[in-house]
C-alpha cells in the first residue's frame, strides 16, 4: 500500500479479472498449506520454500522451516540455500519481518559450522548496501546490518552491541572497564555443548576498525539525504562506542554535520534530533558542563544557529535548537525567555506547552 492511493487499490479489487486471479491464488495457497500440514520432512522442506517465495509474511511457515533446518546437517551449501531463499523473499517484500529474522537466525546457526564466515559477513554488508540503495530508511535492513556488525566483532553474538574490548591483542584479556552495551539482542543463541569453547573477543584494533567503517557508512548515507533518520540513529549508537575525548574524537565535525543539514532544510526534524542527542551526550560524558572546551563548542554552534535564525524568520525549529544550546550555557535565562516568546508567536497551537517550559525556566 505504500505510495498507492487507497481508492485506486480498492478499485483494482473490484475488477472481475483481478478478483478472479486473486481468488485462484488464494485457492492455490490453501491447497499448498493443507498439503504442508501432512507432508513428510523432505516434502515439507520443498513446500515451505515454495510458499515463502510466494508470500514471505506468514511467521508460522518460517517457524516450520527452522524446525526442518535443525534436522539437517549444517554446511556451506545449506546456509547458502537458506540465504538464497530469504533473498528471494526480500525481493518480494523488503520489509518482511520473518525473512529478516530467518536470515539472522541462519547466521547464528552457521557461525561456527562453515568455513568462510568472515567472507560471508562481508558479503552480507554488501547486500544491505544494495537494499539501502532501494530504500535508504528501511529500518529492517539497518537493524540487520547492525546484527552483521555484531557478528563481525564476536562470532557467537546475539546481535547485541555489547563488547568486552581487550587491552592486549596477544593475550586477549578482557578489560571489565570497557563494557559497553548500546543495542539489545536480536536473536536467541543456539544451545552449546558443555565442552564448546567460547569465541574469543575481537581484538580492540579490529573492533575499532569495524566501528570506524560503520561510522563512515552512516556519514555517506546522511550526506546522500539529510532526512535519513535511520542513518542518524545508527550513528548515535556508534557515537558512544567510538567516543574517547574531544581531542581524539572530532566532535566539532558532528555539529558541523548538523549545521549542514539544518542550513539545507531547517524544518526537517531529523538533524535537530541528532543535535539534541549530541548535547545530552556531551553533558553526560564530559561530566562537567562548565568545562571551557564544552562551553566554547556549544557557543560556536549557537552563533551559527543565530545566523540561520536571521535568514529563516518563521522557522520555530531553529529557535528550539537555540534554546537547547542555551540550556547548556550559564547566564542565558534572559535570552531563553526571549526565544520562548518568539516560538509562542510562531506556533500558537502549542502555546500551553511553551508557556509551561517558560514557567519551568523561571522556577529553576
Automatic annotation (TrEMBL):
UniProt-listed PROSITE patterns: PFTA
MF terms from GO for this chain are: Rab geranylgeranyltransferase activity
One Pfam family it belongs to: PPTA
For this UniProt record, give its keywords in alphabetical order, as a comma-separated list: Prenyltransferase, Repeat, Transferase
Which biological process terms from the Gene Ontology are attached to this UniProt entry?
A: prenylation
UniProt cross-references to Gene3D superfamilies, sorted A to Z: Protein prenylyltransferase (1.25.40.120)
**Presence of the UniProt keyword Transferase in the record:** yes
- Which EC main class describes this enzyme? transferase
What is catalyzed by this enzyme? geranylgeranyl diphosphate + L-cysteinyl-[protein] = S-geranylgeranyl-L-cysteinyl-[protein] + diphosphate
Q: What is its EC number?
A: 2.5.1.60
Q: Which InterPro entries match?
A: Prenyl_trans_a
User: Record's Gene Ontology CC terms?
Assistant: Rab-protein geranylgeranyltransferase complex
Function, in words: Catalyzes the transfer of a geranyl-geranyl moiety from geranyl-geranyl pyrophosphate to cysteines occuring in specific C-terminal amino acid sequences.
Report the family membership: Belongs to the protein prenyltransferase subunit alpha family.
Protein name according to UniProt: Geranylgeranyl transferase type-2 subunit alpha
- Record organism: Amphora coffeiformis
Amino acid at each position: 500500500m505504500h505510495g498507492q492511493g487507497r481508492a485506486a487499490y480498492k478499485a483494482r479489487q473490484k475488477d472481475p479479472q483481478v478478483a478472479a486471479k486473486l481468488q485462484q491464488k488464494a485457492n492455490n495457497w490453501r491447497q499448498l498449506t493443507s498439503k504442508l500440514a501432512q507432508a513428510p520432512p523432505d516434502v515439507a522442506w520443498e513446500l515451505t520454500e515454495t510458499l515463502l517465495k510466494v508470500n514471505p509474511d506468514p511467521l508460522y511457515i518460517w517457524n516450520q522451516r527452522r524446525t526442518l533446518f535443525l534436522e539437517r546437517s549444517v554446511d556451506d551449501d545449506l546456509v547458502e540455500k537458506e540465504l538464497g531463499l530469504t533473498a528471494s523473499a526480500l525481493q518480494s517484500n523488503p520489509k518482511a519481518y520473518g525473512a529478516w529474522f530467518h536470515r539472522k537466525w541462519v547466521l547464528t546457526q552457521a557461525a561456527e559450522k562453515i568455513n568462510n564466515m568472515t567472507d560471508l559477513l562481508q558479503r552480507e554488508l554488501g547486500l544491505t548496501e544494495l537494499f539501502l540503495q532501494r530504500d535508504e530508511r528501511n529500518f529492517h535492513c539497518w537493524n540487520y546490518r547492525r546484527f552483521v556488525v555484531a557478528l563481525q566483532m564476536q562470532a557467537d553474538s546475539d546481535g547485541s552491541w555489547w563488547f568486552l574490548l581487550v587491552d592486549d591483542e596477544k593475550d586477549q584479556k578482557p578489560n571489565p572497564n570497557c563494557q559497553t552495551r548500546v543495542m539489545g539482542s536480536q536473536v536467541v543463541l543456539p544451545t552449546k555443548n558443555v565442552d564448546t569453547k567460547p569465541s574469543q573477543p575481537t581484538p580492540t584494533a579490529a573492533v575499532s576498525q569495524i566501528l570506524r567503517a560503520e561510522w563512515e557508512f552512516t556519514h555517506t548515507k546522511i550526506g546522500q539525504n539529510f532526512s535519513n533518520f535511520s542513518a542518524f540513529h545508527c550513528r548515535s549508537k556508534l557515537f558512544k562506542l567510538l567516543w574517547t575525548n574531544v581531542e581524539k574524537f572530532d566532535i566539532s565535525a558532528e555539529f558541523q554535520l548538523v549545521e549542514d543539514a539544518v542550513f539545507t532544510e531547517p524544518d526537517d526534524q531529523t538533524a535537530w534530533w541528532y543535535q539534541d542527542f549530541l548535547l545530552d551526550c556531551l553533558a553526560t560524558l564530559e561530566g562537567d558542563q562548565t568545562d571551557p572546551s564544552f562551553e566554547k563548542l556549544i557557543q560556536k554552534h549557537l552563533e551559527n544557529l543565530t545566523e540561520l535564525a536571521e535568514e529563516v524568520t518563521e522557522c520555530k525549529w531553529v529557535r528550539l535548537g537555540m534554546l537547547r544550546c542555551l540550556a547548556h550555557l550559564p547566564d542565558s535565562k534572559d535570552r531563553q525567555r526571549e526565544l520562548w516568546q518568539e516560538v509562542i508567536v510562531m506556533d500558537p497551537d502549542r502555546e500551553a506547552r511553551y508557556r509551561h517550559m517558560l514557567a519551568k525556566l523561571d522556577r529553576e
